[in-house]
Amino acid sequence: MKKINFLITTGILLLFVVACKKNKDAIAVIPTITTTQIASLTSVSATSGGTITSDGGSTITARGVCWSTSQNPTITNSISTDGSGGGTYTSSITGLTPSTTYYLKAYATNSVGTAYGNQITFTTTDPIVYVAGYEEVRSPTFYSFARLWTNGQSTNLSSAPNYAEGMSVFVSGNDVYVAGYESSGSVDIGKIWKNGVATSITNTTRDGALSSVFVSGTDVYTTGYETLSNNYDVAKLWKNGVATTLIGGANTDAYGQSVAVSGSDVYVVIQEEQSVNAVVKIWKNGVITTLSNPNTEAYAYSIAISGNDVYVVGSERVGNKYVPKIWKNGQGSFLTSGANDGEALSVFVNGSDVYVVGFEGIGNTYYARLWKNGIMSTLSAGGNNAFAMSVRVLGNDIYVAGYENNSSSRAKAVYWKNGSKTQLTNGSNYAGAYSIFVK
User: Fold this and answer.
1) Which residues pair with 212 in a beta bridge?
2) Is residue 184 part of a domain?
3) pTM here?
4) Which of 90, 306, 389, 415 could disulfide-link 49, Cβ–Cβ 3.0 to 4.6 Å?
5) Are residues 160 and 119 in the same domain?
């Protein structure tokens, strides 16, 4: 019996030693991974990811996708970082250039090294340029259509023979929103057109108009004004059609000029017409701050938020001139010397670059101006009066909407891409482009 117990004990010990030896001899290798096919492709972004089928016997410490315009990208190229561990993950690919072919691989890193999935190829789409504005019609009666141009193809948003204008355009996913107004014949009514279908936002019995629209998630914000029964105008903010009165109505007129949303913060730049001077104010989550000097007339038209920085553009009177101005976090600086009248009408921030557009009058000619980080350039207009109304940046391309006069002094709706002009109307009717959005 002792012999049998000894043999059993020896056998168990041998099995333990063999098992320990096998564990000791196990060697980690690089992971095994496959690349997820591209989805949600746009002109500047896409979605991909990967599936890690084996961690190689060592914990995955980094994973994501890498991409390049050259084949066989690695983690020395552009990458996403999407956590750690095994399994399937999704990667957001941003900062791409429109109409460009890219090569992409998933990657996973453990203590041994980095493994790559299969290479896939994709091409970003051409950008879509949306412009909102108007075009007048003079026969058989005088009126204007609110217009949306999509890659130069026009759509009438309003109905004949009402006077209407599209003042602001914003695109979210597949939905296109245009804010503006349309006359009922007796009053102007602020409206939003979503994919061409109009919804009245302001009171339909008194004048009102919308000047700006911004979409954040599923929420649609717009700002403008309504006229009260005492004939004073009040600035308002609408969230999904529900109104909040911001300021005005008590012996002053006020207008919501531009709205922007950053996270849970909602900003509106307001123009208040006080008894002596027009004053610029900012409404943020119910708190109003005066931006301009109340002793000097000032105007503002556009607001942009980038991180913790708040940018507002407009003009301020210096002597007998209105000088284009930008305020950053409440601190103002002029964009020109002040020798000529001008306005800054739109601001857009892309990374560390701040773009502003507007106009400056020199002699009898108005010039469409673009400022990048305060450095001014002139947009081509063939020697005619021209006005830059709205700016947007996509990738490395700068888009500006506005209008210019033809030889008959009729305004044509136009937009510029990197300074090269595209006509949206032929000049037979008065027209203007007020807002641009590119995706």
Assistant:
1) 223
2) yes
3) 0.86
4) 90
5) no
